[in-house]
Amino acid sequence: MFKKILVATDGSEYSRHALAAALEIAKQFGSEIELLHVIMKHPNMIASEVTVGIDMTSMEYEALSKTVMEDTMKGIEAGEVKIETKIVHGYPSQAVVEEAKKGADLIVMGTKGHGPWAGAIMGSVTQRVVSNAPCPVLVVK
Fold first, then answer.
1. 58-73 and 13-29 helices cross at what angle (nearest 10)?
2. Residues 16, 76: contact at Cβ < 8 Å?
3. How far is 126 from 131, CA to CA, in rounded Å?
4. For the chain, how are helix, strand and coil distributed in percent, rounded to 5?
């Protein structure tokens, strides 16, 4: 049913919960997981989707993204589930939707992230993904 599960991460605790939920589903269905982190294309443009500081070089963003991936996976046991990590540049919600169009059967993401609206009922990135996704989206608290 779910061959490929896309998990969007920004390094938040909600992202870790999303990965844990995706792993449970993947174990049941024999799925593989793509763990995706998006580096803002133009950090000054949309402050509500920024997950990191603005004054950073491209290399610093790449290093931070790798840290985000490591932090998201820290202490989580994947077992037999294949997890591929991917870092892309763009606007988070748009990049997640575009990546899902490449063959994801399910998107799993947290309700909130690290952005300035982290206290909102559901994060703005999550809302945009739910509205535009080409496949089902599981939103995890």
1. 60
2. yes
3. 9
4. 40, 20, 40
Domain that holds residue 94: 4-140
Number of structural domains (the chain) is 1
Question: Tokens 């988070």 sit at which residue?
Answer: 92
pLDDT in tens, 55-96: 567 778 778 888 888 888 888 889 899 999 999 989 999 999
CATH number at residue 129: 3.40.50.620
98/106 Cα distance (integer angstroms): 13
Residue 110: how many other CB atoms lie within 10 Å: 26
* Distance between CA atoms of residues 53 and 61, nearest Å: 9
Mean pLDDT, the chain, rounded, equals 84
Tokens 């949309």 label which residue?
46
Distance between alpha carbon 34 and the CA centroid of its chain, in Å?
A: 9
Q: Which residue shows structure tokens 């490591």?
A: 70
Indicate whether this model's pTM tops 0.85.
no
